[in-house]
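Researcher: Next sequence.
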Amino acid sequence: MTTLSFRVAATADLDALRAIMDAAIGQLQLGFLSADQIESSRAVMGLDQQLVTDGTYFIAEMDQAIAGCGGWSRRATLYGGDHSAGLREPRLLDPATEPARIRAMYTHPAFARRGVGRALLAHCEAAARAEGFASCELMGTMAGVPLYLSAGYRVLEDITDDRGGAPVPLKRMRKEF
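Model: Next structure:
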């Protein structure tokens, strides 16, 4: 039986993380988005190095390879990478009144449909709960929405982000613990 392990991402992992994100955006959204929307997604999704700096971004390893990555945040930014214009909101959240953020969840396409995303999500939720948060919020891609719904998240808002050109549908979702 193959086991999945987690470790905190480090600065030395950034190039590997970007490669996984690029592959996941390009391959796992097929069937959910058009080619133009997938390309547009690259402008609003991706690596947020603040998560790595904060120590809240994790790498999931399976069979001695990076199977996926994902994190949570105590900061207000809901989604987007370092390069995403207009999305940065670095203020710290109040765990007593605000939900933690689940951020940048990606599974390497070679490990899709093997429980990596569900395990990463549970790992991130547990870390947020341990810091006193009573709920989590995320921005779900169309490819990720089925996982989040099955994990107990509910849709709060449908949005369309067209900053990359073609409009990309997203769903803001929340889960109470």
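Model: The domain at 4-81+89-176 is CATH 3.40.630.30 (Aminopeptidase). The chain has one domain: 4-81+89-176.
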